[in-house]
Design a protein that fits this description.
With about 130 residues, this protein is an all-beta fold. Strands 2, 4, 5, 6, 9, 10 and 11 form a 7-stranded mixed β-sheet that branches. The protein has a 4-stranded antiparallel β-sheet with strand order 1-3-8-7, with no helix packed on it.
């Protein structure tokens, strides 16, 4: 069992930056892949970024590629999402998720149903 708690959200102007954290408690965090998803009002939850359990591979949605960076520190049981050059369309509740994903096909890392554990979410609001 893994519990996830996100933090670091807030209100920022367009062009600004935020760093989200996902602190994990419980067993074996280092064996789980971690994904970040977001959900804006009236929209479905969408994939943002993912990182494999080793941290050796990362994946990004096209909409955030080049602006967001996912990372993890297994010694601290924490994953991060650094968000630069934020846009108003990045406004959403951001969720981190953990799951046992050992796929070579990167598609599976974008599927919410493949993740077993979810945090409660943190609000990110980008003003224009």
């Amino acid at each position: 069992q893994v519990q996830l708690v996100e933090s670091g959200g807030g209100l920022v102007q367009a062009g600004g930056s935020l760093r989200l954290s996902c602190a994990a408690s419980g067993r074996s965090f280092s064996t789980y892949a971690v994904g970040w998803f977001r959900q804006a009002p009236g929209k479905e939850r969408e994939f943002v970024a993912a990182i494999t359990w080793t941290g050796g591979s990362t994946f990004y949605a096209d909409s955030v590629k080049g602006r967001f960076t996912i990372s993890r520190d297994n010694a601290k049981n924490t994953a991060y999402l650094r968000m630069n050059s934020l846009k108003p369309e990045d406004t959403a509740v951001y969720y981190c998720a953990a799951g046992v994903l050992y796929f070579t096909n990167t598609y599976y890392y974008t599927v919410p149903e493949k993740y077993d554990y979810w945090g409660q979410g943190t609000q990110v609001t980008v003003s224009s």
